[in-house]
Amino acid sequence: MPPKLDLDWKEYGPFSFAVSYGQKAYNTWVSDTVQLAAAVLGTAVVFSLLASMVLSCAAYIRPAKLQVYCHSETGSWALVTGASDGIGRAFVDELLERGFNVLLHGRNQEKLERIMKELAQQHPKRSIDFVVADASRPDHPEDIVAAKVKQLPGKLTILVNNVGGITSKPQYVTIDKVAAEHIDAQLNINARFPTQLIRALLPTLQESQPSIILNCGSAGALVGIPYIATYTATKAYVHTLTMALKAEMLAEGLAPDKKFTKGVEVQCYIIGNTLSAQNTTDIPYLTQDARACARGCLAKVGSGKTLEYPSWRVAVSSGFMKILPEGLLMKAMVGQMRERKAESEKEE
Q1: What is the average per-residue pLDDT within 88-101?
Q2: CA trace torsion 97, 98, 104, 105 (10° rounding)
Q3: How many domains is the chain built from?
Q4: Is residue 252 domain-shared with residue 290, that is, in the same domain?
Q5: The domain containing residue 327 runs over which residues?
Q6: Domain assignment of residue 175, yes or no
Q7: Which of 145, 182, 148 is nearest to 161 (CA)?
Q8: Whether residue 138 sits in one domain with residue 28
Q9: Are 48 and 105 found together in one domain?
Q10: How does strand 128-132 pair with strand 264-269?
Q11: Which of the four pLDDT bands, split at 50, 70 and 90, describes residue 163?
Q12: Which residues cross the membrane (predicted)?
């Protein structure tokens, strides 16, 4: 242990008061009791960080629990909203390959019919259907989807709330430049529709236990991104909604048991920059394609965490954003989004 100080604080004149209390503080700090407490606390913090790192790494190598939801003798169905393009279409492909029948949701009937024919040729042993409903409308499109689900020749065990996006053109503008109807449309697509769909389908999912609700969030919702304020705000809502629903299932005795033989699981994926028809921006080392994103999301099913990341790169970058000083983070975001905004305006 470091030696204690034994200074005659009276010799320091006008500084005697400061020296006296500084000496007392130092001697308290180097005392056996405080040093032991500090060592125990430091060791606990280190072990806690190591345990967190080990658990985080384990989530990327342990087998997923997705197949426990493919249990219905009459056929297990997954509903994927926004299934025509991008991440939604990738979810469809991945789920079909894993033995699920899939109900595709979108708003373009002709496009859905074409996709369904393609998928039927690729997966002749699976049942595939579609439902048309415009998620941007306020007149309860979720009721159309719920009615279609009731007609399925099997059990709905997976709900993928993927539909989302930005409806305004140009895409990157300050909020005062976005038309009121586009703000309403984004609120409907990204927040109202998935919430109402969960409300409408939760009784069905309870009857089909074990079942799971998978919500698609966004890394942008962790900080708020300029020029797409409404979008990132609605995705933050999705994160909180997921955590609240998970708590509700626990409070109502509907949380999954240890072997996932019953219960309704709720999980949200914090998705980073993903290439799609709507997003063509490629950020080095941080961008993934839609198929890799969907595959990574499904690999985290059953991890035990409510908010998950589809890849370790998204997890690391999100963690880095959390520890950066707010001012530095803001400057970095503003610089990048100004560039993206300028590129978008050139394309227009």
Answers
A1: 97
A2: -130
A3: 2
A4: yes
A5: 66-347
A6: yes
A7: 145
A8: no
A9: no
A10: unpaired
A11: very high
A12: 36-61
Cα(79)–Cα(211) distance, integer angstroms:
12
Under a CB-based contact definition with an 8 Å cutoff, are residues 317 and 218 in contact? no
Given the residues 231, 237, 269, 309, select the one marked as catalytic. 231
In degrees to the nearest 10, what's the CA dihedral of 157, 277, 309, 314?
170
Amino acid at 148: K
Q: Same domain for 177 and 232?
A: yes
The DSSP H or E segment spanning 91 is: helix 86-97
- Model confidence over 284-332: pLDDT tens digits? 767 889 999 999 999 999 998 999 999 988 898 888 888 889 998 899 8
pLDDT in tens, 227-254: 999 999 999 999 999 999 999 999 999 9
In the sheet that holds 211-216, the strands lie side by side as 128-132, 101-106, 76-80, 155-161, 211-216, 264-269, 307-308
Question: Annotated catalytic, 237?
Answer: no
169 shares a domain with 292: yes
Element (H, E) at 334: helix 326-347
Is residue 192 located within the same domain as residue 295? yes
Predicted confidence (pLDDT) per residue in 192-218, tens digit: 999 999 999 999 999 999 999 999 999
Do residues 131 and 49 share a domain? no
Secondary structure of residue 19 in the 3-state scheme: helix
Residue 89 has pLDDT above 60, yes or no: yes
Mean pLDDT of 92-119: 97
Beta bridge mates, 103: 79, 129
Cα 48 → chain centroid = 24
State how far the Cα of 328 lies from the Cα of 319, in Å rounded to an integer: 15
Nearest CA-CA partner of 159 in 211, 106, 100, 237: 211
β-pair partners for 102: 78, 128
- Distance, in Å, from the CA atom of 148 to the CA atom of 162, rounded to the nearest integer, reads 18
Residue 3, in any domain of the structure? no
Is the per-residue pLDDT at 38 higher than 90? no
The DSSP line for 233-275 is HHHHHHHHHHHHHHHHHHHTT-S--TT-SSSEEEEEE----EE
